[in-house]
Design brief:
The complex is a heterodimer of chains A (456) and B (112). Chain A has 456 residues and is an alpha/beta fold. Chain A has 14 helices and 19 strands.
Chain lengths: 456, 112
């Protein structure tokens, strides 16, 4: 009998596991996949280790910072700064037709860019920053107010509103077009006020540290251990049945599998939610024989959109070529340059279209979409195609395989469960579907649900 | 004559006097408690330099500890010394001085 069974060895599940095991709880993490990490995993391709989802870690704060989500996370997980060795971004940009806003980890840069391009909005942007919710307000009543509505009342130039929403939604919008103002606040702080960074050794190092710490404290991590069923009795989880038929008992179950996905596992016939148009993406990875900087590209992330209106929606086609994000893992302030150049381009995609393809059509679609996506991206950045030596593409199908998320949803369900509770008294939810986003958000989610519900 | 039992004899590293058949425990002094708290703070915030930590200034001010951190100090004390601190008394852990004052009577029976 475990104290807690955790479903999923992604960032949130591992973080919760570290907290619980550290304080002497008997914990087992069940991971369906053969690798840990979920959306933030890594894989090997022809000798290279590639990150699955990572562009950058948000919420950057420099060494020695005592406040903010990153400092909180480090303390809660007993992490020293050097364990992660975060390297700050060089600088990023939001590019729309006739308007570019560059930003860095110093908010003054974005402010001065806004002063140049949108001089009459400078005070409004300050008002917006002043009205952002604190992290502490997360999940409180009114937190779900439409961010589009709130922001449009403050910022009166529609183009600037679109440009602000482009990175915000790309980095955390689970549903189409809009986001709750509380989540908007978190994302705005995470990306613009705190900033972007990358762990020196990629995501692999963070994952291995978390898993290592979990095991040191006596935690049990089982890979290829998919959960087939959560058996419910008298308003509580009675036991968890694995796909191989074995049964496990625990006082509590913490699921990072997603809310809808977790409800489907429960055998008490929970009503299915109405299908939502959840956001999924295609990402192309290009390995280069030169550094992006030698090709004239020195931005860390570029968020692009080819018209004055940003359409954050599930496209009708395999992918949406109007907008996207371009990331070069090389363009962080490393002490030594990385061995190889790499460019990653991401755009919105339609899960249903990808899942309907047969094997041959899927392979062809990946190739076609790679070409289209990169051709779309090089409208906004130097054409790196002549330097490409190897490519890979991941699709909504890939995301589904790594995360188990319905519809290959990048940021989980549209409706968030901020307090992590469910209809069962000993079943809790953490991860994407608690509403926090990004790597830091996922980890904080696991920590806070463990603290609130499972450590008492 | 007293005989020190080896460390691996268990948590009670007591002094045993064969003459009186009596146990004399080496119990925690204020200084021991201070060291224990510093050890916990070092675990929670490994990057902090704690050498200049002031006795009477709240941890909250010196290290910007928040409620999550205080909860962790409480849980570490429970984990390491089996001391239960009721939630209403968490405020007693505000500074090093108040923490030591609060813990001294509660830890005096704990063997080192």
């Amino acid at each position: 009998m475990y104290d807690t069974i955790i479903i999923g060895a992604g960032m949130s599940g591992l973080a919760a596991g570290v907290r619980l095991a550290h304080f002497g709880k008997r914990v087992c993490i069940l991971e369906r996949h053969s690798a840990i990490g979920g959306l933030n995993s890594f894989y090997k391709q022809r000798g290279r280790t590639l990150d699955v989802g990572l562009h950058a870690i948000t919420n950057f704060s420099p060494k020695g910072a005592r406040t903010g989500p990153l400092a909180k996370l480090f303390r809660q997980l007993r992490v020293a700064w050097e364990d992660w060795a975060l390297v700050p971004q060089l600088g990023s940009a939001i590019i729309f037709p006739n308007a570019i806003l560059r930003f860095s980890n110093e908010f003054e840069m974005l402010e001065s860019e806004i002063r140049l391009r949108f001089p009459n909005q400078v005070d409004n942007v300050r008002r917006l920053v002043a009205s952002l919710h604190d992290y502490g307000k997360f999940g409180e009543s009114g937190a779900g107010r439409s961010a589009r509505k709130v922001v449009s009342e403050i910022i009166t130039d529609p183009l600037l509103v679109e440009m602000i929403f482009c990175p915000i939604l790309f980095y955390g919008g689970a549903r189409e077009h809009d986001i709750g103002f509380s989540q908007f606040s978190i994302l705005f702080r995470s990306i613009f006020l705190e900033g972007l960074a990358r762990p020196l050794a990629g995501i692999q190092r963070i994952l291995k540290r978390l898993a290592g710490r979990f095991k040191e404290h006596g935690g049990e991590l089982r890979l290829r251990a998919g959960v087939a069923k959560i058996v419910v009795k008298d308003g509580a989880v009675e036991k968890v049945v694995l796909e191989d038929g074995s049964e496990l008992e625990a006082k509590n179950v913490l699921s990072s599998a997603g809310f809808v996905e977790t409800m489907r596992l429960c055998d008490d016939g929970q009503p299915e939610e109405q299908p939502q148009n959840l956001i999924s993406v295609v990402e192309s990875i290009s390995i280069l024989n030169a550094s992006p900087q030698s090709l004239g590209y020195d931005q860390t992330i570029v968020f692009y959109n080819d018209s004055e209106t940003f359409h954050y929606e599930k496209p009708n086609d395999l992918l949406d070529l109007r907008s996207g994000t371009i990331c070069s893992p090389n363009n962080f302030a490393y002490p030594e340059p990385l061995d190889e150049g790499m460019m990653r381009v991401t755009a919105l995609a339609n899960y249903d279209r990808w899942i309907a393809l047969d094997k041959e059509a899927y392979r062809e679609a990946k190739q076609t979409c790679y070409d289209q996506l990169v051709a779309s991206a090089v409208r906004f950045v130097p054409d790196f195609r002549p330097a490409v030596v190897e490519t890979d593409v991941f699709t909504p199908r890939t995301i589904h395989r790594f995360t188990g998320h319905a519809e290959g949803a990048l940021y989980g369900a549209a409706q968030k469960r901020h307090d992590g509770t469910s209809h069962l008294k000993n079943l809790f939810i953490c991860g994407n579907d608690q509403g926090l986003v990004g790597i830091v958000g996922a980890i904080i989610s696991g920590i806070s649900i463990a603290n609130q519900h499972l450590l008492k | 004559m007293t005989v020190r039992l080896p460390n691996d004899a268990g948590p009670a590293r007591e002094l045993y006097s064969p003459l009186t058949s009596d146990f004399h425990f080496l119990t925690m002094t204020a200084d021991d408690i201070r060291v224990a708290i510093l050890d916990i703070l070092h675990d929670i915030a490994p990057d902090e330099d704690l050498t200049g930590l002031k006795e009477d200034v709240p941890f909250r001010e010196q290290l910007e500890l928040d409620s999550m951190d205080f909860l962790d100090i409480v849980m570490e004390l429970r984990k390491r010394y089996r001391i239960q601190i009721p939630e209403a008394e968490y405020t007693e852990l505000a500074s090093m001085a108040s923490t030591v004052r609060y813990l001294e009577p509660r830890m005096k029976d704990i063997v080192k």
